[in-house]
Structures are given as structure tokens and as C-alpha cells.
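Input.
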Amino acid sequence: MLSFCEQLKKAIAEQAARNADPLREKVEAIVRGMEAISTVALLDLLGLPKTSGNGRRIAPTMRALGFVPIKSRRLEPGGYRDTVTRGWARPIREFSRTSLKQGEKVTSLHPKPSQTDKQKACHIQ
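Output.
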């Protein structure tokens, strides 16, 4: 059983999280189990007007849930060649952000063949 002070701290933390992102719970419930969704469909399911401001409003929530922004014809039913819809998709693999240190060079995955290897490849024995 939690003491009154612990319950109060927990309630304050939950309220702060809700105030920080009031749409998070609704968006989480909508996209649970989905791999991709268009922004228009998400705004429609949330009951918000389809404006660019509302699209920007849900963007941080979608990024926090692990989605990445995409442009695709597949999100629009019967999408034509020039019909592109913006939306969100879960990445296929996790991103690992590695950066080069100052002065470090990118190396090839395949080592360069030596001169003797080139000579052997050119001569048929």
C-alpha cells in the first residue's frame, strides 16, 4: 500500500505527463498494432480538423512512439503516380547513430586486392 505522499507524487507525475502531451494516450490506442498510417487518417480518427497545424501537433507524439515520417502512394487507396500522401511508419530496423570522429575516414567493407591477386586473376593456368 502506498503512502499518501507517494500517491500524491504519482498523481502529479501522471498529470504532468498528460499536460505535456494530451494526445499521447489517444494516439497510442489508435496506432497500437499498426505498421503505417497516413496523417489524414490519424487526424480523422482523433476527430481533429485536417490542417497542417494539427499535423505538426501530432508529429512529436508519433516520433516519441517510434514512428518515422514518410511520403507514400500506398497510404492512399487507389493512389496514382502523382498522388503522394504523408504519413507515419514504424522502421523495419532500429537506427544506430554512429558518427565519425574528427579526422577519421570511412573504410571499405571489402579489402582491396593486392597486386599479386590481380596478376593471378589475369593469368589462366
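The first helix runs from residue 4 to 20.
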